Amino acid sequence: xxxxxxxxxxxxxxxxxxxxxxxxxxxxxxxxxxxxxxxxxxxxxxxxxxxxxxxxxxxxxxxxxxxxxxxxxxxxxxxxxxxxxxxxxxxxxxxxxxxxxxxxxxxxxxxxxxxxxxxxxxxxxxxxxxxxxxxxxxxxxxxxxxxxxxxxxxxxxxxxxxxxxxxxxxxxxxxxxxxxxxxxxxxxxxxxxxxxxxxxxxxxxxxxxxxxxxxxxxxxxxxxxxxxxxxxxxxxxxxxxxxxxxxxxxxxxxxxxxxxxxxxxxxxxxxxxxxxxxxxxxxxxxxxxxxxxxxxxxxxxxxxxxxxxxxxxxxxxxxxxxxxxxxxxxxxxxxxxxxxxxxxxxxxxxxxxxxxxxxxxxxxxxxxxxxx
Length: 372
Ligand SMILES: *Cc1c(COP(=O)(O)O)cnc(C)c1O
Known about the structure:
Oligomer: single chain
CATH superfamily of the largest domain: Type I PLP-dependent aspartate aminotransferase-like (Major domain)
Bound molecules: pyridoxal-5'-phosphate
Distance between the termini: 44 Å
CATH architecture of the largest domain: 3-Layer(aba) Sandwich
Radius of gyration: 21 Å
CATH topology of the largest domain: Aspartate Aminotransferase, domain 2
Strand order of the largest sheet: 2-10-9-8-5-3-4
Mean pLDDT: 96
Shape: globular
Helix content: 25-40%
Number of helices: 12
Largest sheet: 7 strands, mixed
């Protein structure tokens, strides 16, 4: 069997063999052992955000977007008005979801290479007293930019409004402390920085808010309140749970703890990111996001302008060497992305850089940089 490729993407990611091993058994979803596994995971995930005092963890089957959709559909009132802060495709997706749900919202869009601005958000909240909720993405995976969650959360809380966060690609690697950052809901998934396998998302929801959210959801299976009541009543999932995904995540959380928790993971991802960025710059590539706004999650590079550089051929050559990278998703110009997350280390990045250098040489790419 060919060696598995290394996934340098924003998820699903390369997982450890221990995580894969943890999936080698079947679970009865209504059995006491699985109920205990679910309860343990819910506790552990809440503790990662130091959110035990006021929040509950509500897991759901599906991709990360399912969790975001459940959070929005359940935690926003049907007659509330939501401010959506957008600086990339995942923020725009939040707008799409609200449009489909026919929830009133105002969307403000800013440059994709820059972090969101807390003062702009504050100005909009002050200008329209109907706004009740704010939604934002923490790390905007479109570009890799880190948004100022703490500043925006402060601005929202000071005005007595509610904040919902898509922390899909940051949770588990970038510290989020619920005792310092006021949020009503935070959605994330098993298969990003927690390094589990795909198939489950979850929302950390403030209990006092969730209690008010019965009947908000227009969806049966994405009703976060109903699923939370289910867990409270009998510890069970309402519909078929992704059993192996939970078992894998439980193992992945053991590995996260062994690595030194979120601080340890943050350090490893930063080392991956620094190794990648400095090596790519030495090869002539330029990053899209300035260093001070870059999260250690995924890095966007401008395409080289050399006519000998052709992305599809570059992608295929890297794939042949066992590295899967990601196309760009920016609205302003051609780009590609390389992820720093998953069960990968700086030595993997060094090997990747060696392969990229050899591919460029092989293709005769000489004129480096993006300037003509
Ligand atoms: C990955 C991601 C999602 C969810 O993507 P799915 O493909 O539905 O798992 C949502 N928001 C952000 C910021 C992400 O990085």
